[in-house]
Specification:
Blueprint (H helix, E strand, L loop, with lengths): L3 E5 L3 H13 L3 E5 L2 H10 L4 E5 L9 H11 L5 E5 L4 H9 L4 E4 L4 H30 L8 H13 L6 E4 L6 H10 L8 E5 L8 H6 L1 E2 L5 E2 L2 H4 L4 E5 L6 H13 L1 E2 L8 E2 L3 E6 L3 H6 L5 H7 L2 E4 L10 H16 L12 H4 L5 H15 L5 H12 L2 H15 L3 H19 L4 H8 L3 H11 L6
Parallel strand pairs: 1-2, 1-3, 3-4, 4-5, 6-13, 6-14, 7-10, 10-13
Antiparallel strand pairs: 8-9, 11-12
Length: 455
């Protein structure tokens, strides 16, 4: 299908010239000669790309207003702005508002064709990225009925009517980015950008450039995360990794809601909702003078704490069923028969937390199509119990053989009862029924062995 370009310019010679150039390249072209015609064409059907002149027939409405209209309808529609007498300020404003490119008149055939092709390629990549992310991430939900997860869900609900800054703490893989996306999705900023900057992945010398952007001598501008997130939400992932010196500049932005680009002279005003996340203890870093206390208090207006998966094993069956359904749909295969009573699922430490469980389910979904539950169980055991774990178990067993009978029996009972309690999510009654003991007798046994509780 031919790509459709909308050309908006009040100069008939320019319209004809651009139309001829684009039609030679096998594009379908629509035109508008003034502001009102342009609005009608945009409302009728959004093009694949628009070429818009800055100055039109109305004194109070111009191409910038049309740019806002197009990007409001679809932010991924590339818009190339053209002008013969626009200032640098106007060009910068157009780019800031979402224009793909700004071209000064007169322009060559090669330049306009090049920018149109690049704009369409960029749009296609954005669409593919959105589809991919919707399948693999945005469609995932916060799953669980444990007290910890229910508390987080209630906080997200309350934050839907708030503009407060949020600090999400939790171990790696526990779902911090997912929570941040849910907060943004439930907020009044849902139609505005959600920008992520991962401080742990940046080189030390690039933090300020990535946050604040940069101006170059040739007039080009590299927009930073703060500017790209304007009117929307900015997630600073692993905020603890921002260098101490840069933290002062971040604090100043939070106070003033404005900043200067690197090599820039003018203040850029921003209106963003800031969410930060960390897998480290920021309180401890403050005490060690590795994180600014004043910045910590500015970020930690509304704390959200995610716990490890091993501390809420009752959510594992729900997560497995959820990921089975989602991942089998994404990969176009049959759901695997995963035995949710497999002890290893509950005794394994899950250092990668929910992300690691999701990866396990995805691996089983791909590798175990049409396999029996027994074979899948064996695969789970092989994945969760590598040779290092077997070696640890052998050492434990060897220690039992080297102990007197009473100590060996006691060691076995502690291991056995701890495993069963984890399997039954700390429920004494269910554990007692499974192992064939009276509930009161199990209580006494746990007390005598010093087993106080299961996390």
């Amino acid at each position: 299908m031919l790509k459709e370009i909308l050309v908006i310019d009040d100069n008939p010679d320019i319209r004809l010239l651009v139309c001829n150039i684009l039609e030679e390249q096998n594009f379908k072209v629509r035109t508008a000669a003034n502001y009102d015609q342009a609005v009608l064409e945009i409302d009728k059907r959004l093009p694949d790309l628009a070429i818009v002149d800055i100055k039109l027939d109305k004194p109070d409405k111009d191409g910038i207003d049309l740019l806002k209209l197009i990007t409001k309808k679809n932010k991924n529609t590339p818009v190339i702005m053209i002008s013969g007498h626009a200032t640098v300020k106007v060009a910068v404003e157009a780019i800031r508002l979402g224009a793909y490119e700004f071209i000064e008149k007169p322009f060559s055939k090669e330049k306009i064709v090049n920018y149109v092709n690049r704009g369409l390629e960029s749009s296609l990549l954005k669409k593919e990225k959105d589809i991919f992310e919707n399948k693999l991430f945005h469609s995932f939900d916060l799953i669980g009925e444990s007290p910890d997860i229910m508390k987080v869900k209630k906080i997200i609900e309350k934050l839907s009517t708030s503009e407060s800054r949020v600090l999400i703490s939790g171990p790696t893989g526990s779902g911090k980015e997912l929570v941040a996306r849910k907060i943004h999705k439930n907020s009044a900023r849902v139609k505005e950008p959600f920008i992520i900057i991962n401080a742990a992945l940046l080189k030390e010398k690039t933090y300020e450039k990535e946050l604040f952007g940069e101006e170059f001598e040739d007039g080009n501008i590299s927009f930073g995360a703060l500017e790209r997130a304007n009117r929307g939400t900015l997630l600073i992932d692993e905020v603890s990794e921002i260098p101490y010196e840069t933290q002062a500049n971040v604090l100043r932005v939070l106070i003033d809601q404005k900043f200067k680009r690197i090599n820039g002279s003018k203040n850029i005003n921003v209106n963003i909702r800031l969410i930060s996340s960390t897998s480290k203890d920021l309180n401890q870093l403050v005490r060690e003078n590795k994180f600014r206390e004043d910045l910590f208090h500015r970020l930690n207006v509304m704390p959200v704490v995610l716990t490890s998966l091993s501390s809420r094993t009752e959510d594992i069956p729900l997560l497995i069923e959820y990921f089975k359904t989602k991942l089998s749909e994404i990969n176009g295969v049959q759901k695997p028969e995963i035995d949710i009573k497999n002890d290893n699922l509950y005794t394994y430490n899950w250092p990668g937390n929910v992300r690691e469980l999701r990866n396990l389910v995805e691996r089983l979904t791909i590798l175990s199509s049409n396999e029996s539950k027994q074979k899948i169980n064996q695969l789970i055991d092989d994945i969760l119990n590598p040779s290092s774990n077997i070696s640890t178990e052998n050492n434990s067993l060897l220690q039992s053989f080297q102990s007197p009978l009473k100590e060996a029996r006691e060691h076995f009972e502690i291991e056995y009862l701890t495993t069963q309690l984890k399997k039954h999510h700390g429920n004494i009654s269910k554990t007692a029924d499974f192992i064939g003991m009276e509930r009161s007798a199990l209580h006494r046994k746990l007390k005598s062995l010093g087993i106080k509780g299961i996390n």
